[in-house]
């Protein structure tokens, strides 16, 4: 029963996180206001594009069941570094919670996804 709860928890939190990351990756590629936000943070344009494609790859790594465990672990680590870096970048330029709150919320979902994933693997 515990493994089923872990699996359901994993898929719910991971799906929500994947939707969020997929939307932000798309927005980083297509929306000029998001490109302006990256410039505001001091990042070069190529970084925005590179980060978008890395997010797409990470979402695939988390959602596809046949992906090896070590790749999923790296995807989780990469997302964690990305989200912590986003909060730090926003704080460094003096942005308020409206700017960095989304990264914190995504980080909570990521952490819950990881906990449920580990739980479902050990149960």
Automatic annotation (TrEMBL):
<keyword id="KW-0812">Transmembrane</keyword>
<dbReference type="GO" id="GO:0016020">
    <property type="term" value="C:membrane"/>
</dbReference>
<protein>
    <submittedName>
        <fullName>DoxX-like family protein</fullName>
    </submittedName>
</protein>
<feature type="transmembrane region" description="Helical">
    <location>
        <begin position="74"/>
        <end position="93"/>
    </location>
</feature>
<feature type="transmembrane region" description="Helical">
    <location>
        <begin position="51"/>
        <end position="67"/>
    </location>
</feature>
<dbReference type="InterPro" id="IPR032808">
    <property type="entry name" value="DoxX"/>
</dbReference>
<keyword id="KW-0472">Membrane</keyword>
<feature type="transmembrane region" description="Helical">
    <location>
        <begin position="99"/>
        <end position="117"/>
    </location>
</feature>
<dbReference type="Pfam" id="PF13564">
    <property type="entry name" value="DoxX_2"/>
</dbReference>
<keyword id="KW-1133">Transmembrane helix</keyword>
């Amino acid at each position: 029963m515990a493994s089923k709860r872990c699996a359901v928890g994993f898929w719910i939190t991971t799906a929500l996180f994947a939707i969020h990351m997929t939307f932000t990756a798309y927005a980083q590629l297509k929306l000029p206001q998001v490109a302006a936000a990256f410039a505001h943070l001091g990042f070069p344009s190529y970084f925005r594009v590179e980060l978008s494609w890395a997010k797409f790859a990470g979402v695939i790594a988390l959602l596809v069941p046949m992906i090896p465990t070590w790749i999923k672990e790296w995807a989780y680590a990469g997302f964690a570094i990305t989200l912590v870096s986003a909060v730090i970048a926003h704080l460094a330029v003096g942005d308020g919670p409206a700017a960095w709150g989304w990264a914190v919320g995504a980080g909570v979902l990521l952490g819950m996804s990881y906990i449920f994933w580990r739980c479902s693997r050990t149960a």
